[in-house]
Amino acid sequence: MLPGNKVPRVSVGNLVAFVARSGDLGAGGTAGPTAQQGTAGHQWLAKKKPKSWLSEVSVKHTFDTPHGPLQVAGRIDFARFSAGKNPLVEEVKTCLGDPQQDFGASEHWAQALVYGYLLAHSDERLAENVKPALLTEHDLLPAQSQLDIRLTRLDLLNRKTHSETRTHTVAELTEKTQQWVAQYTAWLHLVAQQREKSIASAQGLAFPYPEYRPQQQAVARHVFRCVRDARHLLLEAPTGSGKTLSVCFPLVKALGEQAANKVLYLTTKGSSQQVVLACLTQLQKHGLALSLLQISAKSKSCPCAASDGENYQDCPRRVGYYDRLPKARQEALSLGWLDEKAIQQLCLRHRLCPFEFSLEMAAWADWVVGDANYWYDPVIRLAVLEQGAKPAVVVDEVHNLPDRTRAMFSAQLTSFDLQQIADFVLPSLQSPLMVKRHKKCTRVLSQLAFSAGQFSFEQTLPASRLADLFTAVEELLVVIDEARTQPLPGVMDSLFGNDIGQYLQPLRRFLALQNYLAEHHICVVTAERKNAVQCQLICLNAGPYIAARRSDSQMQLGYSATLNPANYYLDNLGLSDCDSDALHWLQLPSYFPAQHRSVTLVTCVNTRWQNRAESLPQLIATINAVVDSARGNYLLFMPSFEYMDLLLNQIPAEQRRLWVVQPQASSEADRQVFVEAIINASQPTVAVAVMGGVFGEALDLPSGALRGVMVVGTGMGQPNVTNKALQQYWQQQGRDGFDYSFRAPGFTRVVQAAGRVVRSESDRGAVVLIDDRFTHSVYQPLFPPHWQPAVANSVEALQTRLHAFWQDKTVT
C-alpha cells in the first residue's frame, strides 16, 4: 500500500519529472524565466487566443493501481472545444531564446500527453462553457476519440512562439499515462516500505544512554508535544547540555508516531551539520533505520563546480544523467543513509552529479540536513523541500538566522561586477547589442553616485530611484542569456563555459531582490570615484521573511545557547506577534555546578578601537596571567583580525610558536586543523580566533580539552553603513537602536565564544572577559543566569582570583 491513509496526490509536473525525463542534465549557469516572467508570458499568450478557448483548466483523476490509488492533478494551460474539430490541449513552456531549441524535450511532451488524458478522464465536471454535446454525459471522451496535443514554446525575449501538434486517440493517451502512473506508484510502494521500516525502528528506539542528563527528558517532552500540536518552539539551553540529542531524539519519536511526516534540519553554520549527523549516527547504532539525506553546497559536492579546469558542458556526469538516474535512485533508497560521503560514492558508481542527485532524493527522505539558505533564500531555495506534507523545520544555532536571512534578502551591484563581465563575458560573444547594454548599465550605476548633479561619496536613496538600474540590469541579462542559447564555435565555446555563472550571479541576485523590497530595506550608494560605485540593497529586518516561511512548515523549532535578550530575538525571528498558543519558549538554566566555572570581568584593558595599539602591553600581561594560572590549553577570541595581528606582532617568537592561529581566509578544513591542534597539543597551547565565525561556534572539543577561554572586547560590530542603518531602523520601530544593532548581537558572540569551555559535569574552566564595558549596568541582564562574574580591576587581582579558583578557594 501507498504511505498513509489519504489518497496520495501528485501534480502532473512532478509526475512526468520523475518518470519521463531522459538524456542530459541541463547546462548550468543559464537562468530560465522567473515565475513572474512565466506568468506574464502565459497572460500575454492568453490575450491572443480566441474567446472560445479555455485557460487554466483544472483537471484531476484518481488511478487505481496494484499498489493503491493515486490522484494526479494539474491545470491545462489552454484547451479548445470546437464543433467538427478534435478537442485540443495546449501545453506552453516559456524560454529565453530560440523557441525551437530543444523543442522535443521528452518531459514537456509527456506533460502535454498526461493533460490530454486528464481532459478525457477528469473526475471533475469541466467548465460550464464547454458544450456537453462534445463529450459524453460524464465529460468522458470515448476511447477511440482523438485529441490534438500541442506543445508551444514562447520566447519571452522576442515574443515569438513555436508550436507542434500531434494527434492521439484517448486509448493511446490512456496506455501511456497509465504506464507512467504504474512506474510512479511502484516507486511510491518502495518508499512506503522504507517508511514502514523507519517508523517501526523509531517506535522501538530507546534513549541511547542509561539515563537522561538533567533536564534532557523535560526538553524531549516539550519538543515532542510541540511537533505533535504543530506549535512553534524556541529553546535556549547552555552549551554542553546535550541540546542536539534532546531535540533529535523526540523528533525521531515523532516520526515513529507519525506526528511528523518529515524533518528538515537546517544549519546556519556548515560545521553544525557534522554535529547532528553524529547524533543521528549514534541513534542509528541503537537500531534507528532512518532514511536521511544531507544536502551539501554545490561548490563543495559537485566535481565540475569545484574544479577550475573542467568545463561543465563536457562533464561526463551531465551527459546521459537522466538515463542513469533510475538505477541510482533505487540503490539510494535501499541504502537509506545518504550523507555527503555516501552520495559521493554512489554518484561515482553511477556517474551522476552529486549535488543534483541529492536534490532528486530530497523529496523521499525522512530527514533532510542542509543549510538554511535552501529554505529561506529567495534566489536559491529548493522547491523540492516543499513537495508533499509540510516538514517540521528545525534551525540549529538559530541566533544566527536573523543575520543569515538579512544577507539572503540583501544584494549589491558594483562597478567591479560590471567590469568582470566586460573582461570575461563580452569578449567571448562579440555582440554589439550586448556591449551597448553593458555600457548603459554601467552608466546608470554611475549616475546613482550623483545627487542634484553633485558627486556624493555616500547617500541613501529610495527604492524608486533604482527603477532605471533594474531595467538596465534586466536588459543586459536578457541579451546575455539569449546569446548563451546559441551554439558557439571553437575556442569561444570554451571561453564561454563553466565559469560564466559566477560573473552573472551578482546581477541575478540584485535583480531578483527587486521583487522583495519593502519598508525594511534601504538602498545605500557609495562611491570612491565615478567609475567605482557600489549600490547596496540592505535588508534591515529579516523577521517578516522568516515569519512568511512558517506557513510552509508543520512547525518550526529553533534552538541555541544564546537567545537573550528575548525581545531582540522575537523581533528578528518574526515571532513577536505569536501568542503563547502558537509559540512555546523554553529557557533552561545550566545544571553544571556553578563552582566549576570561574567568570571574571577584567577592566584594566581598554579594547576600544582607538585605544587598541596602546592596550597591547596590558592585554599581553592579562593573557599571560590566565595561561600561567593553570597548565593547559586556552582559547583566545579577538574582535577582529586587525587587532589579532597587532597582538601577534608583540608576542615573542618563542612564545608565539606555541600558539595556534585562525587563518584569515578560513575553510572547514582549516577549522578541523585548528581543532586537532588543540586536542593533540603536546604542550600547553593558546589557540587564537576571531569572534563570530565558525571558530567561535559549533567548535566541539572533548571534555577537558580546554582550561579556559579569554574573550577580548564586547563583540560589537563596526559602525559601518549597515549597522548605522540598523540602529536608525530599530530606533524608529520603538526599540533601543543601539542595543539591537550593536550590543545584543555583540554579546551573543561573547556568550558563544565563552561556551567553548565547561562542556560536561566534570569539566572545570575559566572564562575571562576583557573589557571594562562588561561591568556597565546594561550588560548585567544579558549575562546567562549560571554565570557568577567577579570583577578584576588589575592583572594582580585576576591572578589572585584564578589562583583561588584553581585551588578551590572561594573568592568574593
From TrEMBL:
Signal peptide start and end residues: none
Q: Which UniProt keywords apply?
A: 4Fe-4S, ATP-binding, DNA damage, DNA repair, DNA-binding, Helicase, Hydrolase, Iron, Iron-sulfur, Isomerase, Metal-binding, Nucleotide-binding
Task: Supply the name of the protein.
Answer: DNA 5'-3' helicase
Q: List the source organism.
A: Halioxenophilus aromaticivorans
| Keyword Glycoprotein in record | no
Q: Which family does the entry's similarity section mention? A: Belongs to the helicase family. DinG subfamily.
Question: From which domain of life does this come?
Answer: Bacteria
PANTHER family documented for this protein: DNA REPAIR DEAD HELICASE RAD3/XP-D SUBFAMILY MEMBER, REGULATOR OF TELOMERE ELONGATION HELICASE 1
Q: Which reaction does it catalyse?
A: ATP + H2O = ADP + phosphate + H(+)
Q: Please give one Gene Ontology molecular function term for this protein.
A: DNA binding
Q: Which GO terms describe its biological process?
A: DNA repair
Which segments constitute the Helicase ATP-binding domain? Answer: 202-449
Cofactor(s) listed in the protein's UniProt record: [4Fe-4S] cluster
EC number of this enzyme: 5.6.2.3
